[in-house]
Amino acid sequence: MVLPAQRALVPLDSVLGLLDLLLDETADEQSAVAPLAESLDGVELAGVLRRTRRVRAALARWRRRDQELSALLSSARELAELRDLDALLDRLVARAHGLVGTDVTYLSEFDQETDELRVRSTLGTFAPEFRRLRVPPGKGLAGKVVSTRSPQWTTNYDHYLDVPHDAEIDEAVRAEGLVSLLGVPLVAGDRVLGVLFAANRDEHAFTPEEIVLLSAFADHGAVVLQTVHLLAQARASAEAARAANEDLARTMAARERASAVHQDLTNAVLRGGTAHEVARTLAASLGRSVEIFDRDLAPLASARTAASRESSSVTAHVRAAVERSRTTGRCVFLDPSDDGASVVVAVVAAETLLGAILVGHGDLALGSVERRTIERAAQIVALLALKREAVAEAEERVRGELISDILLGDGAHREELMLRARARGVRLESLRMVVAVLVPRDRRRAAVQALGTWRPGLLAGEHAGCVVVLTDAADPDSAATEVRECVRPLTGVPVLVVADAPVATWGELGARFEPLRQCADLLHGMGIQDTAVNAAAYQPYLALFGAGRDGIVAFTEAVLGPVLRWDRDHSTDLVKTLRTYIDSHCSPARAARALNMHINTVNQRLDRITLLLGPPWREPEPFFRVTVAVRMHALATGL
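Structure tokens predicted for Helix-turn-helix domain-containing protein (639 residues):
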């Protein structure tokens, strides 16, 4: 045995060889340690060899860790450059797959609202159902990773009983052939973003190094993923802010445009503008055609753009839209098929419909500001209509008072009446005829307005319950017909017009009016309500019966009562035969030709009339009364 003092020193070359062994991963241990055998015994040599192996293993681990860290840092830099979320998730999975080297790597994103995990990116998988996998809250290995926020792993998932299994998850795992799984959380702050998985298709015990490495990579990935989310939110916020600024700019522009339109419309009211001016102003602001209608939805004013179509017709849909707008005062959008009209708004004052505004199609979107502009225009049109009607009503009242003073006045105020008439554009000395117009009370104003445009130089207004026209016409028949043709289309109701012969001077007009009104009342009382007549033709009846209908009915019933009752009871028309017989100069042959029947039939009917009225009815005095009664009956039945 060699004593310590007697031991040989270890040669320097052997020590250097041992150090080279530690640095060289490929060097053979036995050949490097052999030179030490001469200086060391077996036990010492074994100890050196054992320590050498530990040092080499530690150095190998450090080298691998360095490589992993280098790869990890390289991956982090690469991931930090990505801004697209889907591309980032795919790159995360690809880098993790390369770092850990498992068969399958995939990432499940965590839904904060439903607490579900949804597979977003995979590498190494082949089963399509696995790529669509959703993990319910708390289920499977993924659920445990989320709840604990720490890595979880298993060498065999089928035998892993520490978590509640889910049939759909288990089926997807089996379809993919996965056995061992490692899952690490992607956590940013206090928020779980998802779970990163590494899996093998055979049993594998994951080493601490693999777990730490995947966890470190997941931490880097979570930071980058959170940054991408924040950047996406920032971009979305910036886009929303840009859109809000654009909306604000558009709104401000629309408000400025609306303010200018409102000012123009207000000025139109103040300076006595018309509906045409409103239409032009609104059309210029909206770049759309504008049509304004009156209370009867007849065209009142319009303004068109170069691209606008023909006039919009007032269809049933448009009328229905006007009624809807009438109750709210708001714009109502129309179907595009309504002949070019896009929007309609009713022109109302309180609950009275004064008209409507129709706006056509155009490029400018009708936002809230534009709709309020259209509604404001409707209010302006209503003000103009009320103003126009107030002026017209005042003028009609003045003209009505002037007509009343002319018809009821005396010569003491002759000059005053002439001046008042001249202020209305009428030369009183030229008026020679009175015309009475009977229409329902609620249509008298429309009749007066219609007559205001009939011909210049006349006066029209209400007096004594009817519309009176003072004109310079010379022929009563043509004057009555022309007045009726003027009034009836605008009133839409039956119109009875009675005219009388012209007078020598306007001072005689008052004396002519009362018989004229009595004639109108007589005809109206007998049911004649829609015709134009010359009062002179009915003076005999006025002389006989006045204006009372009761006397006419009583006289007719007393003379022709039996014949009238026979016609009612037997559905015959003996009265018509009698009237035709009288008109045919009491000739049965002429009456037969007029009635288009055989003379024997006429004689038989005359015999029946004789039986009913008695044989004396053909005597001169009874025949006169029968003739008058037949005439009055014909008038009463509207002949």
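The longest strand covers residues 191-200.
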